[in-house]
Amino acid sequence: MNNFHYRIPTEIYFGKNQIENLKNITAFGKTVLLVYGGQSIKKMGLYNKVKSILEDCRMNVFELGGVEPNPKIESVRKGVDICKKEKVDVVLPVGGGSVLDCAKVIAAGAKYDGDPWDLVLDGSKIAGALPVVTVLTLSATGSEMDEFAVISDMDKNEKWGTGSEYIKPAFSILDPTYTFSVSKKQTAAGTADIMSHIFENYFTNAEGAFVQARFCESLLKTCIKYGPVALNEPDNYEARANLMWTSSLAINGLLSLGAEVTWCVHPMEHELSAFYDITHGEGLAILTPVWMEYVLSDKTAEKFAQYGENVFDLPKGKNPMETAKEAISKTREFFAVMGLPATLGQLGIDETHFDKMAEKAADGLETAFVPLTKDDVKQIFKNAL
Amino acid sequence: MNNFHYRIPTEIYFGKNQIENLKNITAFGKTVLLVYGGQSIKKMGLYNKVKSILEDCRMNVFELGGVEPNPKIESVRKGVDICKKEKVDVVLPVGGGSVLDCAKVIAAGAKYDGDPWDLVLDGSKIAGALPVVTVLTLSATGSEMDEFAVISDMDKNEKWGTGSEYIKPAFSILDPTYTFSVSKKQTAAGTADIMSHIFENYFTNAEGAFVQARFCESLLKTCIKYGPVALNEPDNYEARANLMWTSSLAINGLLSLGAEVTWCVHPMEHELSAFYDITHGEGLAILTPVWMEYVLSDKTAEKFAQYGENVFDLPKGKNPMETAKEAISKTREFFAVMGLPATLGQLGIDETHFDKMAEKAADGLETAFVPLTKDDVKQIFKNAL
Q1: Beta strand residue intervals within B320-364, DSSP E
Q2: For A210, which of B7, B9, B242 is closest by C-beta distance?
């Protein structure tokens, strides 16, 4: 197990009607920037509820609506401008990971003199941030409890993840009932995103991180059990609750600390989203089994076999390579059951930009679970067609 | 899954040489009360190391040594007196759970006008505490990351657990190498204590807390894998590291939040320790399988079978009662492998005080996984003879 520093300052109010605890936002000041996406929070009555609580608390409320999936740097800039002009004290995103990510970089940008894109390119430039309080409506990115944010500049076909201790939310409200209205497509994509976060941590070369590996398997089993339930019974509280809590635990540091590894499927997918603005989780579901097959070797077979045995209950003690292959098949089958696409072709993606995408994605992957070059990444993209 | 409020403010510096981060204690003030037990931290050089770091930081250091296992209220009172007289800013226990628990109640007592025993009897009376920074030398109680402390008054044969948000440590240093010198007996007892914390959370009637149950199984598997390794190879870093991190995760809220249940084996063991001053973990190892057998019924068989299947890899799909019984046997066998005692007789305990002990232990157990009366508890004690 590697040395680590565990620090998860975010508090979570989890469960039905926890929105009442939003009143605790007053600890951070009087002026709030409410950040949200489209109409869904209005349709479900959450927008009015939030506004009414803020009103009861006599907060001054400014708003930034219309934050898009794969949030754009332009939205961040708008939010930063409001924060600076109106002397905002606290940023309150209400929505899914895109809204939260946008708000987190707004919070950092409010304390930064230059263009916030600098902070996306280099998280170490974040030297402070307004406090962020989140209300989550989609189980996927884990942004409600972590230090990360992913922002795109579509003009440049760039999508980057940034991170800083300063943008960990102060507290987050996780009410699984808010996810009852999430569409089948987004439920499936969200589950694939959660699973990919777990995979990124699970397939590590760090030695002796036994606890972390077992926790990864626990969370993968949770996704596999409850993903299809949530798909078929959208208002199944137990399923939505387990997926929601799993989304936070998958990426808040619990799985990675002591077992650090360079993520590799996420950087590849970010290139897909940057060039084609597709749904992140769909891209991940396509790339994950292809990546698994590509890196499977005598050297990695044991780890993939362990995955199959401990997550899919495949029989123990068989030939590791056979079990590994079956585990990868099971992964592919699971994504199919979730109705997720299996090929890039299904999303209208062809080879056009593979060269450029592979070059960008491969930057840094020499320290991944299995090191990957530009040519490797390009081949993975091709295998995913 | 029940509603919950997740708040784990304690930071952890985990791994080799993390003691260097002790310098961060200066954030809490200039005057520190160093709390420790016997000679072991001096023998291993940790005492000198800590003193030298505090000196480098120009801290004023007061000391309270000689804190006993099953820490006594008299030690707490001594510490509180020093804190009040010397205007101590921060309390620094260096040792195992007993030292940490003692220090946590000292920290609370320093901010309380009456006798600190009041705070042991009623944690809600804790309305503030000095910051606590811990350096851990024994994997067992999880006190380094939780809100609990257990203090005894041997004159009254009383041993009670108290708890408060205020006594959660600010940060803790967990260096597994400090546990290399822990004796076989204490290694075994510590492992039994960790496992008991997990069992107390695992055997719950809360519905739908799937993530929490899988996490419990992950940590139990860790204890079962690494407990014997640590026993036979005391300086096996991987084993000590996994046990140490498991001790913290078992009781910091991760397993219990959303799946709350009344603990029942711990209260029973506290009566043993209060009357006989035995090693806590040994008492737990004796009572746990006896309790399991006592509460096993058609109603609970499925949960025990699940435990057997998921922790001991017993074959799935067999008759639940048979699997449950095998799981309990496996538990007993594991404790035997760890060299732990199996009967109260081995510890010199007879029926003398069972009546009084059962009466005190049963108070509140009507809400346990299987509700227990005074007569039930008495019978469990008898079955453990």
Answers
A1: none
A2: B242
